[in-house]
């Protein structure tokens, strides 16, 4: 721009631009996140975790009056993973088993996190 010309910059709802002010511009970009859902698990791991959950009575069965999940789905089986919060040894066992399985299946994994509500306790596994 040639000296002496006004660039005509205006900022909506703001008119106090002074010489020496620094104006920064940003572009907001939406990034699609990739979430990997593990649906494949060995029979021995499944049996071991199911046994642990049964021991602490986290698995409930009600074939006559199905449970209604938050999604609205009806199911005769409900697994209350929040129960693991009250049983540290069981929580640690399930969390370590799952984290070891994930690390073996996906060796380049950088982060394993627990999500609300039932897996929050899993996010602190020491494995």
Mind explaining what this structure looks like?
The chain has 127 residues and is of the alpha+beta class. It contains two helices and four strands. The chain has a two-stranded antiparallel ribbon with strand order 1-4. The protein has a two-stranded antiparallel sheet with strand order 2-3. Helix 1 (43-55) packs antiparallel against helix 2 (88-105). The protein is elongated. The mean pLDDT is 79.
pLDDT < 50 stretches: none
Helicity level, as a percent range? 10-25%
How many distinct beta strands?
A: 4
Structural class label: alpha+beta
Average pLDDT, all residues: 79
Can you count the helices? 2
Overall shape: it is elongated
Largest sheet: 2 strands, antiparallel
> In what order do the strands lie side by side in the largest sheet?
1-4
Order of helices and strands: HEEEEH
